[in-house]
Amino acid sequence: MIRVLPPEVVGKIAAGEVVERPFSVVKELVENSIDAGATRIIVELEDGGRSLVRVTDDGRGMSVADLELAFVQHATSKLEDVGDLDAIVSLGFRGEALASIGAVSRARILSREANAIEGAEVRAEGGVVTEVRPAAAAQGTVIEIRDLFCNVPARRRFLKTPQGERQRCLEVLQKLALSHPDVGFRIEAGRTIDLPPRETLRRRIGRLFGRQTEARALAVQHERGGVGVDGLVVDPDGARRDRAQQHLFVNGRPIRDRSLSHAVEDAYREYLMGGRFPVVFLFITLDPAKVDVNVHPTKSEVRFVEGRLVYSAVRSAVIEALAQRTG
Ligand SMILES: Nc1ncnc2c1ncn2[C@@H]1O[C@H](COP(=O)(O)OP(=O)(O)OP(=O)(O)O)[C@@H](O)[C@H]1O
Ligand SMILES: [Mg+2]
């Protein structure tokens, strides 16, 4: 017999796609803070995010009406109609993250808009959402996610050690901090990492990867056929044994893309021996209508309408940057 699944079950299934581990929570919450125009974001982790992820921002905040919808699936303020899906500019658009996270944790949102007299809070426990209540709050939003997967024991069992989860969270935060050097971050996860707002990309790379990397970085600035490639590439002397430090972003969003990694490595080819991989921080910008970010629930893969054009723009951009070395 075919049965329609009850909403709690549907919610848990959907959550499985968006929320893989604590780092997914960190990514979704910080992206929301950035979309809300935050200039300072504090991220606190306990147990590598397994028992607590708390993100505090000074963004535009949420109204009572917003809070009522925050944990509802497919509720978003970022898409007005289907036409918008063809040209996405915000980091979020699916209206799914908070609903998914709220379905598999004990979650709380506390928020106040700039001109509101008081704040409000809403909670969700395993998908059961409370009424919105008034609460004292600073301007902006605090979202606390406790005990991720408390009601999904199979998932909980697959979580790594706190150190392992913490490491993944830090990697995600690194990407977000790189693509938003204008935003200040404070990361409290055992040790505290402080990244002041309004930094240059170069300075931020220095803070995250050390002065040597900063000093060896060459500027990239290239534009052709509506594809912009900017950022920094590190001198071949700074190459590594793995691809872990190839940071690629498309319209501000970190992505993984084999073809573009290949474009980068091809540009470095004459400078690098086999088994050595370049360190790059490349920001590709193009008409949002020419890239589909809605390929995967975590949005880490994209499809380009004109893949060849993007490939050759990246390759040329890196070649030009490396040419400054001797010149
Ligand atoms: N930190 C925040 N500050 C202000 N508003 C927020 C914040 N976090 C979430 N919101 C509001 O809650 C809505 C739902 O957030 P949620 O992350 O679930 O969906 P989304 O960001 O619209 O899309 P996606 O599922 O792709 O992330 C957002 O559209 C936004 O209006
Ligand atoms: Mg979101």
Please give a structural write-up.
The longest helix has 18 residues, at 162-179. The N and C termini lie far apart (73 Å). Helix 6 runs antiparallel to helix 7. The mean pLDDT is 92. The protein is of the alpha+beta class. It is built from ten helices and 16 strands. It has two domains: 7-195, Histidine kinase-like ATPase, C-terminal domain (Heat Shock Protein 90); 211-323, Ribosomal Protein S5, domain 2, CATH 3.30.230. It has helices at residues 7-18, 22-35, 64-70, 97-103, 153-157, 162-179, 201-209, 211-215, 258-268, 307-323; strands spanning 40-46, 52-57, 106-112, 119-125, 128-129, 133-135, 140-146, 184-189, 191-195, 217-224, 227-234, 246-250, 253-255, 280-285, 291-292, 303-304. Strands 1, 2, 3, 4, 5, 6, 7, 8 and 9 form a nine-stranded mixed sheet that branches. 32% of the residues lie in helices and 26% in strands. A hairpin with a 5-residue loop joins strand 1 (40-46) and strand 2. The protein binds adenosine-5'-triphosphate and magnesium ion (MG).
Keywords:
binds adenosine-5'-triphosphate, Heat Shock Protein 90, Ribosomal Protein S5, domain 2, alpha+beta, 2 domains, 16 strands, five-stranded mixed beta sheet, binds magnesium ion, 327 residues, nine-stranded mixed beta sheet, 26% strand, 10 helices
Summarize the model shown.
This protein has 327 residues and is an alpha+beta fold.
Largest sheet: 9 strands, mixed
Shape descriptor: globular
Radius of gyration, in angstroms, nearest whole number: 21 Å
Structural class: alpha+beta
Task: Quote the average pLDDT.
Answer: 92
Let me know the CATH homologous superfamily of the largest domain: Histidine kinase-like ATPase, C-terminal domain
Question: How much strand content do the residues show?
Answer: 25-35%
CATH class of the largest domain: Alpha Beta
Distance N to C terminus: 73 Å
Small molecules (ligands, ions, cofactors) in the structure: adenosine-5'-triphosphate, magnesium ion
User: Please, what is the oligomeric state?
Assistant: single chain
Secondary-structure element string: HHEEHHEEEEEHHEEHHEEEEHEEEH
* CATH architectural label of the largest domain: 2-Layer Sandwich
Strand segment count: 16
Name the helicity range. 25-40%
Number of domain units: 2
Give the low-confidence spans.
none
Q: What is the CATH fold-level name of the largest domain?
A: Heat Shock Protein 90
Number of helices: 10
